[in-house]
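Render this sequence as a predicted structure.
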Amino acid sequence: MNEISMKLSQYLLKKDVVSSWSNVHSFLNQGKNSGFIYDNLFRNAMYQVGDLWEQNTITVADEHLATATCELVLAKYHMEKVSNCLNKHKIPPRALFFCVEGEEHNLGLKMAASLFEEFGWDVYDLGSNLPVDYAEYSIKKWNPEVVCISISVRHHLSKLQETLQRLEKVNPALTIIVGSRFHQEESFLSCCTPGTLIAQDATFLFEWLENYQKETGRVDKGVLL
């Protein structure tokens, strides 16, 4: 972990929202984009917290407090970015977000959803632990162009495989993006279908969204103010 994320992790563990936000905002003022901030600050800071918990340096209560503090700062960052966005289209592209059934860790999902909103997408964030039946129902109801799925616990991989196979049957033209810290592991890759896009980090999503708006013209290049 880099020095940047270590500093933020210390603020989060102390429930220091003011210092946490000041730390994040300083990089925003430097012109860093959300891909950089989500990967190098928020994600790595929470990885550091997780490592401390695994080493028994902090308790599970400390980890939960840091997570709750991180969610507060993420919410503030989200409002800061989205309030500066202008979607000039009456019908923006739509994206659906959820964690695979059984998966309760949704910080990565929240960052991904916020990133899509920055680019002017109509976002439906269904949160953690969504049964596949309801994922199918949601796709039929809202007809998204993109579905983003998050998974961070290995024993949910079999459920990921089932989810991908069933969703592709609902809409074969659907773009499905899966984010996971296991993105380089064979056990994860073997669960993904050939058409699955794998997002190794927020920077990948940022670049994908940039390319999407250039190729389709669905969202104006000047949407980010």
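Summary. The chain has nine helices and five strands. Residues 219-225 have pLDDT under 50 and may be disordered.
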